[in-house]
Amino acid sequence: MSLSDGDSIPPESQHDARSLDAEARDDEPLDAYSRTVTRVAETAMPAVVAIRVERSAPEGRSRAGLGVSGGASGFAFTPDGLILTNSHVVHDARALRIVTARGDELDAERLGDDPHTDTALIRVGAPMPALGLGSSRTLRVGRLAVAIGNPLGFDYTVTAAVVSALGRTLRASSGRLIEDVVQTDAALNPGNSGGPLMDSRGQVIGMNTAVILGAQGICFAIGIDTVQRVAIELLRHGRVRRASLGIGAQTVLIPQRLRRHFELARLRGFAG
Residue 65 has what pLDDT? Predict the structure, then answer.
């Protein structure tokens, strides 16, 4: 049916047309978001690995030489098989194997780890697709973040989130504070440790390392600038060499006579 001169579209049809246009416009941001996450996931997946860790059994529980197994995540950042993961994943490992997205299983060698930054470097004797490294210094709160890992044995799980906060500190297993920690609301679980946190371009902006159990969407990733700096040290020396002044100090109560003599308002001070 065609409209002749003087005919008009009924008001009900005009309303329906406007509704369809509004729905289409509402879908556009979601479609762009979905396309971005899909593109990042498809591009990054071949470079992400599942790490199978075999540890020595605790004393008294060893039987027939069997060890204790665990699983985590990692990602290749060079095409010759260098893989980044967390120190707490591989620190006391007796044997390491990685599983690629294609299902290939490869033996891995630990080149070094740094418990102070929870960063480790391992290597496989085969070429790997590699992820590009971005920068955590240029991040902004609210930026899209995509994580890939192997939580609770569910291999290659993709979660999308935003950067919740920057400049956090996190205490490592060694007792030192890790600086430049990125907080996200990604849905992470045990097994995501060592996996990449990526931006909308698919570049790595952090390495997932910890969650607050019992909380809702409070997760942490070590900033990739820290990870990259540590990885270079591990590749060169097998460990991170740190300078030390050799000075120790503790907080002590200042004797009352000294406070009176020097007219000090504080009750405590540092003593070497």
Answer: 43
